[in-house]
User: Fold these one by one.
Assistant:
Number 1:
Amino acid sequence: MLELEGVGFRFPRRDWIFRGVSFCVPPGTVTAILGPNGRGKTTLVRCAAGLLSPQEGAIRHNGPVGFVPQAHGGAFAYGALDMVVMGRVRQVHLFATPSTGDRVAALDAMDRVGIAHLHDRQFPTLSGGEQQLVLIARAIASESPVLALDEPSSGLDLRNQAQILSLLRKLVADGLAVLLTTHHPDHALYLAGSVVLMGSDGVSTGAAADLLTDKGLSDLYGMDVRTVAYRQDGTDRRAIVTRYDDRPAGEASSRSSATSPR
Amino acid sequence: MCAEILNPPPATVHPGLLRRRSVLRGAAVLGGAALLTACGGSGSSPATTNPRGITVKDQRGKTVVFDKPVTRVVTLPMPAASMLIAVDQSAEHLVGMHDASWTAVRDGILGTIFPAALKVTHDVGDQEFVPNVESIVALEPDVVIQWGDRGSGIIAPMENAGLTVLGLSYGTQDDVATWTRLFATMLDKPQRAEAIISNIDDQLGEMTSLGDSRPSTGPSILYFFQITESINVAGSNSYNDSYINLVGGTNPAADVEGPSGIVGVDAEQVLAWDPDIILIGNFDVAMPADVYDDPVWQNLSAVKARRVYKVPLGGYRWDPPGQESPLMWRWLSDIAFPAGKGAALRSQVVTDYQLLYDYQPSDAQLDMILRIDANRESANYRQFDAT
Amino acid sequence: MLREAEPAAAQESGRPARFGGSVVPVATMAVVLVGVTLVALSVGRFPVPFLHVVQVVASHLFGIEGSASAVEGNVVWLVRLPRVVLALLVGGGLGIAGAALQATFRNPLVSPEIIGVSSGASFGGALALLLGLGSLFLVAGAFVFGLAALAILFVLTLDRAGAPMLMVVLGGVVTGSFFSALVALTTYVADPYTTLPAIVFWLLGSVASATFAKVLVAAVPILGGAVVLVLLRWRINVLSLGDEDATALGLRPSPLRWVVLVSTSLIVAGAVAVSGVIGWVGLVIPHLARMWVGPDHRVLLPVSFLMGATYLIVIDTLARTVTAGEIPLGVLTALIGAPAFFVLLRRNRDKIWDSA
């Protein structure tokens, strides 16, 4: 369970990035944060994960939030298992090193995300998708009931993206609460029960079915966005069809400025 | 007459020590750079007087003509101030000196003999002997004495400012004779040069024949340039090595070469050498008692025989070459080969001070110069007590 | 609460040898260090038979009388042993301090000199030498100004949101330059015939003037700091991930970082006080150790200490035995360390930079 109430954040001596953001991520659900670049998605998920302190509002959670950053190399070539074990820092005494129990928990977590076979590989030598999985395993190893992920599928190929999405769906089915930012409305359509839209005219929250409409998405990104319905494995789904703008530059910019005044 | 100690100093440069050497070079050169090559009158005359004025040739080979005897002199090389005062028997023609020269005057007996020297300006250059041209010009000197063997960078700025500069070298007894002649000539006191130099030559001859008469293997004598924080001793090529040999001693560090003759060694190396006599120079604060009390040195022959001595400090430090060097030779000779008779050195100091400074030191001053207090616990030092 | 059934297969195969095997490199290095120490005690300009070396040590430690002469006893116990132990402490301290700093700054090219503590400590020591104060003040001065450099760095990077790494490194450069200028000023005003040579020799770096008093003075801060670092060894792993990751995992990076920085400052100040600035050890040794045992600080920190100790004992033994004249230690560490480091960088640059 993760709950934000009236949260507002701004960097010192700057304008508010967002204010009055309220939403709730119950266990077993996914909330996705969507919006164009620069609207504060990452800032919001960092606030939710406790990495930034909002100037106003309250954030409640029923346990530590496991934050999964975007994959990055790091200065030192630790082993994958060493990386995952570091998720146990809350459970390890200040002067101690991880116990056998901590290592078992880390291996459990790697097994759950399907990368147990990578345990003795060096983290920087892994592919981007594998690194992302290691970081997710690390958050799981910390026994956090809430996962906050910052663009977990960015920089990954299609297969790796699908793998991450399936994994998140499986983790949610096990009872985790998941908050994530994404640039892919498709991923939100697939995963999220609720969404947080961070557009040019403020933040709106609500059920995915209500907000991720053609109009809602078109307004959010300032362009024509259509969704199409299809059926897969007996489930009705929707997917994005991007309208590529091939008109001359002048007309395109007038359309853009009509819906997204800056 | 001194062919056996006349050796050209090898130009050795230790590559790893260049930076250190550049900072140390003032001290190291002073501590004893080259060989004792005093050959008295055999050196070429650096100056001649003619009716049109005074002509001197400095050690760079540059010739300078003065219309009349100089009356305002600025000295930058540290030993130059006391040597000029000795030649002049007065401080009245010295209008500026290096700060390190001034502290030596203040801390030694020269300030007592010539109180006027304490009032002389001493902000004429920095520790690397880079001249403070404006403050020197303000002193309106007739001549500035500067190092002549350390590049033109410390001379050119002064010559560009219209100052007359004499460039000097240092490190051997020969240089002492050259400086003495040069100073005497420009002050128009040539008889002073002859008096001082012939005194040095006489005593050198006396010490040489004394040394020759002694057994070929005298006591081993180790000179410590520094002993407290780091251990630096006089190796071959050092001035100290030359007077150790002069009096008939042997230098255990003779097979060690350093860029300036002074070389850093390990305590263990000193223990391996096991010198019979230890000299503690004036460039370290240590006294014989510090060596006697240090457990590391307990088994040294010099400590067991209590033959550790602090080098005296007179009108100038006795370790490097200078106008008082004959006294150092005599002192070391008495230390190395104690005859048991008293007062010979004391009376020689009185005689030489009369010649050099026209001054009669008191018994208390002689005790201070010879460091009777510091050396009281050392063997054979009572021979220098006042009678 | 999130636990599934234990994945037995992953458990069996997933017990990497490194967890159990971390003892091996530490033990190996410890044995090497003991061996090197014994060799260093046995060689020198004053010949002492190995048997007599053992007898001297045994007689002091256990009161067993041997046939070694008194002068041999002095050579081994009062000259060589303090010097070897001091080299051990200084080398080990600089090695572990360098490794901890590289982790803290997440930059494998950081060394104790980078954060300005070495310069601060040098100034403190040079000032004590300039004023002609005793060795106690030399130590105290190095401590005070080493920690002052740290305090200046702290004020410079003080920020509610936590000091970004770049600011800390820049702050270290600024503090270091400032104190280097003060050291230069010290040598400028020093008497060129008395205090300057002492300051210059001390700045060059040497353990030649070792005594048991100095060993004691160095041991307290160096071992104290090293013990704290070794205790925090796994926390330092987490810290080396960066502030964001560490915070996300539940570790407050700022207090831990300052504990590490104060510990390394203590070590560096202790080392500088007794031996001047000995460069390169803090940079080269952690690299060598990392190439051997990997980046895990649980192993890397103790191995860096043992390896640094071994390295400096070897270098110092060369310095005092190769020629009758003493070769300054700082010169040797740079002469040997820099080319060795160059070769290793060339050979391993992919390994180092790909993981950066």
Number 2:
Amino acid sequence: MKFREIFRFEFAYQVRRPYIWLFLIVLVYLNFLMTRDRAVSEALFEEFFINSPFLIANTTVFGGLIWLMMAAAIAGDAAARDAGSRMHPLIYTTSITRAQYLGGRFLAAFVLNALLLLAVQVGILLGIYLPGVDPELIGPFRPAAFLTAYAFLSLPNAFVATALQFGLAIQSGRAMASYFGSFILFFMGFFVASFLLYKLGLGTLVDPIGIRFIVEDIAHLWTTIEKKERLLNLEGIVLTNRLMWLSIGLVSVAVTYLGFRFTHRLGSTSRWTRLSLLFRRPQVVREDATNSPVIGIRASTPIWVPVIPRTFGFGMHIRQTLTLAWTLFQTIATSWAGLALLTVIPLLTIPVVVDQMESNGVPLVPTTTRVINELTAPLSAELSRWVIIPALLIFFAGELIWREREARLGEITDAMPGSEWAPFLGKFLGLGLLLVAFTTLQMFAGLFAQAILGYNTFDVPLYLKILFGLQLPEYLLFAFLVLVIHVLVNQKYVGHLVATITYVFITLSSLFGVDHDLFVYGAGPGWSYTEMRGFGPSLGPWLWFKLYWAAWAGLLAVVARLLWVRGREEALRFRLLMARRRFVGSTPWMAGTAVVLILALGGFIFYNTNVLNQYLTVSEKKERQAEYERRYERFDGIPQPEATRARLHIEIYPERRQAEILGSYSLINRTAVAIDSIHVAIMPGVTTGTDFDRKATLVIADEDHGHRVYVLDRPLQPGDSLRLDFEVTIQSRGFRETGVDPSVTSNGTFFMNTNWFPAIAYQRPRELITATDRREHGLTLRPLIAFLNDEEAYTDRGRGMTLDVVMGTPGEQVAVAPGNLRRTWTELGRRYFHYSTQAIGGEWSFFSANYAVHEAWWEDSDDPGRAVEIRIYHHPQHTAHLDRTLRSIRASLDYYSKNFGPYQRESLSVVERPGNGTGLHADAGMITHGEGFTLWNPKDDGRSHDHPYAIIAHEMAHQWTVPYAAVEGAPVMSESLAWYYGMKVVEHSRGPEALQRLFSYMWQPHPYSPIFRGEPLLRGLDPYLSYRKGPFALNTLSEYIGDERVNGALRNLLEKHRPVDAPLATTLDLFRELRAVTPDSLQYLLHDLFEVNTYWKLETERAVATPTKTGNWQVTLDVETHKVVVDSAGVKQEVPMDEWIEVGVFAPDQPGKEIEPLYLRKHRIHSGRQTIIVTVPRRPARAGIDPDHVLNWEERSEVNIKKVTVD
Amino acid sequence: MTLKITNISKTYSTGAVQALKNVTLTIPHGLYGLLGPNGAGKSTLMRILATLQEPDEGTISLEVSSPDSGHVIDVVNQKDEVRQTLGYLPQEFGLYPKVSAESLLDHFAILKGITTRRSRQVVVEALLRQTNLWDVRKQKLGGYSGGMRQRFGVAVALLGNPKLMIVDEPTAGLDPAERVRFLNLLSELGENSVVLLSTHIVEDVSELCTRMAIINKGEIIHEAEPLKAIEGLKGKIWRKIIEKSLLPQVELEHKIISTKLLGGSTVVHVYSGEEPVGFESVPPDLEDVYFSAMAGHYPQRAGLQPK
């Protein structure tokens, strides 16, 4: 009864609070928006219903995240309202039990939260079923989709969060402590789960929110069909996760219950103080009146208060501001949340940074650039781990603005002299000091992490520049905003709510239909820093935007000051009255200055982004793409001449960020008909002049869509050719909304022809791709990539071109273009480089920087006299891998030319691209790599995986890539083959142990997590299939039929498809070649590996050895084996097996020696249990089936090998 | 130094309660008592004077006389000028629990414009000694008793030698000795500043206030010097000790201003121009003044504009 009354009262009390309804509205609205814009799904595949269980679960996770951050007030209020309102003596002295009191309150909070989270589902429902959604996107209504998302995600989360929030608020007696509970969960999800424990496989388990185990894991693991149909189920890791967090919730409830007493609360003594009191001398508060020698009253006690001169005006305000700033800094720095910010986060940052200084087990050099990259994130990066900082800032801002009033000191401080500027700026500065302290500690955390990793080049100035100069202002601007919000809203919970929504708006502004950064507080183009480019041109626009926002902050400050509540009058009428009265003296001037600055800076930015440069919103860009297709798609595939030769003269002026390109294409009509008009595609953002060497009339000049059509006076007859002359001027004018294009920059110019050069014919890559976009613009849907059997795509190939380039660049720089370097010379202080090449494809890269050039030669041992010039262009400081790169290149040239035919070119360039990425890219005769590549830091101990070596071998293999068609399976043709080649180079040049280390590297689930379902390899598109499954499948095959046969098949494939008139290869051709070299007895394996998804479950149950009379040992193995095929919908089916699998018996390990197989031979193995008996000459230690994981490399479970027991 | 309150009215939008109706008062320097029951509008008036609330209508001016020249501060519109000479002790306030008295007082001293460290030390020490908190200055305020908090509040109010002291029901949490000491202190302050003390305890006013006003339901119903007011009631207050059961009877016949229980019987005070039968004359005290005023036996004050 009492329990019911406590529950009823609490529920009824809270349900009448306006903020509950505000939370409700916000949740419904935001989830409506998220569903509508499918922000969540945009990053994922496109073709499923917006009411698919997967998308509903996804949106539920994000909705829950917003709920977590804003609705902590509910549990906090239920737990701490009595203590906060000082009503607790009345309640505590009634005859209720702890269980009734806590239980009723907790249950009320939980029920409220659970009901509130229904708003998430309501928002999703409205998003789906209110008019305005393409009906094709809506699948059949399935209540279970909503119910499972609610029951498996929202409800457990509500329980855990309420339990933690409630517990913390009870402990501290303060409702706000509940936000700390939210923070802990948030922190677990974003920081701990995603970064700290991710590698250990614990990430999925310790994420309380679902970011990892729904949004990331399922998004990756479920096939498209599953995403469309499959219901979220409580099984596997999801079940474990839910159970674990429910238990944590229960523990929290228990701890709260056990720790709670109906006792007097000493002020707001926190646990810390209570803890510290244990170690301190008990403090007795002495009542002086009783101790004082004078008892009674002496009317004559003279009152004497010294008369002290006081300062008013500016001096006092400064003093007040500084005092407040310092006091408040101390207060929040020593609070729970402050300690979290200033100790926990920097301390956790150290292991996070250390952890991130390797990539998939390969160490990276922890350069300052790289470490800083881990320490910084733009404010709007809502999925970065640093989203914690804005969350904390919102919390601190509330605490600061409400500090006096919550301590019930407001009336005293409000009656003190001085304007409202002092408290407002004091609070801002206090928060600013906290951020400065945090930033300083983060810097030390970074330095410390570097020291731990043994890196001693501490670049403190760079830390200062970036952390204090670039990252801190970002936080300060946001801190300012949330303070102003709390001032204006003047209701703490609603303030948190508004601040949270504001943050959501900042991070997802495009979801609200706001694209331009001029309208998103604090936003602007980001900065970038690389060792080659430095900050490049990124700082200017960054600064202009930040100044603009600082001016806004100034105006907001004036508004906050004017509407600052001082005293008892909180009604808007009085606040406006006060504002009018306060709008005197310097305030109007400040406001005016701020407005003028906003207009001036905003105008300047607008001039740059929208006048000097063209600004298009995302939807405008899409509309242009659609319009391009609508207008010109009918010209797709019409007879057009083909370029056979390009002559280019490129002048680069890095300091002016300018480039001039004079060029010509020789075009030939290879078709059977005369061509009367020529379609020229023009690239956006550059000035392009085009002309022909014969009379042609420009009939369409559609500059917006980049399409020109020339009608030739005299049609181009079959076999006839003409020349297109063009002139392209690249001149960066001011800056764009996205910043400055760094393609041409003082050091580190890099661009490709596809960025700027005109091209012939209709450009299919310009079309919209995703189904939604196409549907929205009334275009027919098209597959992402042509189907495997689309034979038309096989013939769509260029014949290669001759490229002849002269590049001019300032005297100190080196320019690089594809091809052989013919000549360099100097003219008027500029250096010129002449490159030329033949049979090059359609993508050409151009570079200019202060490169150091490392030159070497490779001579073909089989064909003396044939030599390849190797030129490595690198940043002068980035020399770590020069030797290794060269060795790998030479080994690759040796192996590949021997096995797959001669290298087709005279030279090979390796060029460092500006940018911090580690990625490499292979073009004809050229390998480019990001600066990050030079940061791989393999140990040269002969026992570690030499990643740069392996990856160069892989990139080298691309020089032998079979010309392949852009159909399903294309990435397998390109990447799988190149990785298989790379494996072989590593094996042959560095030995089998090096190959095993490469395997270990590739077996890791990162960066490509395994998919055990989906398309078979022949139609593979996913990186896991192309970068992992494909090479391993080829490797498995080579283990069975031998390298020579596989290599022979691949060489055949290459030779068949290399001729320019041959069709392009597909995985079907690959499969055919492999089938040709595979004996009949193993054809099943080829099918298992390529045509279906097959998994072998191979388990050794028992291994027993008995000595024989002859001194040998007989080993008896009990094995259980199964073969499972999973189809593209994810359905598993066991298939019978009867095939050759290796059985191995091994001698004991001997330190320093390799493990020696006593027996290694293939046996015929069928499904189910069976016994294998082999005889070995010596005493065995371990034995098992498929010991090298040739077949079950994907699971690599160690159940296949057992210790041998001796009978 | 004079505080002139003219025709102040204030209505709260919630519940449309008129908290103050046309209040007009002139408060000279000295200790001025504002006496009234709970909910009479005392705190509203005090907060308006302390710049924390806005009157709906009316003006308040603080006439500052200095040896050379005087000037007038408009309390409603020149809040900051008022705050520079204001000392305010609210009826209810809290303190940061984790700070020591000394450092919080020092903090407030800065906020009040005492910027040099040396003078702050002097002032803080003097005030902590005056309020008998010197020995416990290092202790955290969270451990202070009600009286100690109240005295700390006084110390804060006294910072910066205020010429206008507004103290709202300050004696509530004080023990008898503290209370008297505190009132003494206020009275001494009143020697050269305006000290306005609001209270619902008659003794607070009777002992030390040079002038007083009685407020009820937002209206000033009586303004006087306590001694003169008592004087004015001479011969008008009569007393009778009766059985409790007779009270309704007596109420019908006489204008009762107060009844008190005394040792099982009921002591009735009535207000009457002539001697009622069976009553004895008693010398009036301020309580009688208060209850007479509350019972409506005073005519509206002369000089008070009718509404």
